[in-house]
Specification:
The chain is mainly alpha-helical and 78 residues long. The chain has helices spanning 3-6, 15-22, 26-34, 51-64, and strands spanning 13-14, 48-49. Helices cover 45% and strands 5% of the residues.
Length: 78
């Protein structure tokens, strides 16, 4: 299941909603926006993101092994 499947009736989420769903803090999403990694809109003072864009950003972090998300296998010994 991807984030877009859960919120498919919502074209945009505010950062608190998106962060809560993916289990992160909203400053983490703000940092991704500042770094140009997460597409956003800013109608007024609030940032909003598309669920599909949040999912794509998370997938890219998983693929590149970023600091944000580290998946450990059972054989890592940690």
């Amino acid at each position: 299941m991807v984030l877009a499947d859960v919120f498919n009736d919502r074209p945009f989420l505010n950062l608190d909603e998106a962060a809560r769903f993916v289990g992160l803090k909203s400053p983490t999403l703000r940092r991704a926006i500042r770094q140009g990694k997460l597409t956003y809109a800013k109608p007024g003072r609030a940032y909003v993101v598309r669920p599909a864009d949040v999912n794509a950003w998370l997938e890219s972090e998983l693929r590149r092994g970023g600091k944000l998300i580290k998946i450990r296998s059972a054989g890592d010994g940690k």
